[in-house]
Write a structure and sequence with these properties.
It contains 2 helices and 4 strands, in the order αβββαβ. It is of the alpha+beta class. A hairpin with a 6-residue loop joins strand 2 and strand 3.
């Protein structure tokens, strides 16, 4: 709860938008409530660079919530929300039909302990080699 009047909140939001800190205002849909209870993360390995035009067509699928280019042992990381394991399997088949996709690894979410947007605070960590005290 914010201890501000409605006009003060409106003014604060306008300033945050003007500064670029607030990119957009959005309604967050609940996956299970809209018939998509299965949340999964899919690692996609491709023959070349992950952000090809062909591979980016998966952004058109409503099950795909996020697409990230990542460093490590995979090229791209997808956050997907599906109606069932069969729907996930169909999505994976669609991925495999995409030119350049070599393999995928899927991680189905069992429980979510924290789900939030970007936070304004920045943790001040000690220099490397020192222990962080909570």
């Amino acid at each position: 709860m914010v201890a501000l009047s409605a006009p003060a909140v409106h003014d604060r939001v306008k300033k945050l938008r003007a500064s670029g800190c607030l990119r957009r205002t959005a309604a967050l849909l609940d996956g299970p409530a809209i018939g998509k209870p299965l949340l999964a993360f899919v690692h996609v390995d491709s023959a070349g660079w992950g952000g090809t035009q062909e591979l980016m067509t998966v952004a058109d699928l409503p099950e795909v919530e996020e697409i990230h280019s990542v460093a490590g042992d995979t090229c791209m990381l997808l956050k997907v929300r599906c109606a069932s394991t069969r729907a996930l399997e169909a999505l994976l088949a669609q991925l495999y039909a995409t030119p350049g996709v070599k393999s995928t690894r899927s991680y189905i979410v069992l429980s979510t302990y924290l789900d939030r947007t970007a936070q304004a605070g920045i943790t001040e960590f000690p220099p490397v080699g020192q222990v962080y005290a909570v």
